[in-house]
């Protein structure tokens, strides 16, 4: 723990030096009121993936995922609805169809399309999944080659971009040097900025990007503290990431007419829900509903005989986290309510 405290101190000094002076750049006001959105295009990872990731790479297609909605696994990394669904609901449209189902989409194509893949990052991660650049390539092909959407469609379109930590999880798993974290985070933000600019350049009118949630509070981290507290060293990395992203978005808006880039502050929204312990329906807020019976097993894991190697709580609606990295449907609903003032 001494090394962890040292890391926390070092990052605190780093952030203090960054924030002294002009401070954080904030995005104010309601950025959506002047646009009637009819198409939503989604890019990112498991926080927004509604079914693209294949069964070979994900437990999201196995029981008990989809427990609360639709009652069976459908590729969402939760027991039910996720950020994409609640965001689309707020816009007054149905959730966009996953890219992998575009050939049979029919009338569902009219709501847009999701290119997000669970486990993806701006760079390549641990599985052969499309990183964000490739996701945007898919979008460009849908526009330019397949001609699924017209320029008129894009005039009433919006993008939701989620980047929730896979680039950093991979860096950690590969034993990236501690002194390289600042450089790696900067590299990630630089690429994310290029991605945001490219999405808008393809004709999307508004581009919403999430600030990163407190990854040190995910059960995969809080488990080392018996699910009683967060890993603040990891959260300090998040602070740096979000600081750079806020600056990047502010700069993009200065360079672009009509300020088309907006922030969704997942970090603040998560912490708002965490802090409402007295009135919240969530219990043991850092403990997941579904977890493996031993460290080598995950939620949804079964042995060759079909015997479950996981446990599940009695009521997912009373837990914030579904598994070791993803919120429950009830949690996403609470987070979406905390985000409403930003919509």
Automatic annotation (TrEMBL):
Pfam families: Lipase_GDSL. One of its GO terms (biological process) is lipid catabolic process. Keywords: Hydrolase, Lipid degradation, Lipid metabolism, Signal. Residues 1-29 form the signal peptide. One of its GO terms (molecular function) is hydrolase activity, acting on ester bonds. Belongs to the 'GDSL' lipolytic enzyme family. This is GDSL esterase/lipase. It comes from Dipteronia dyeriana.
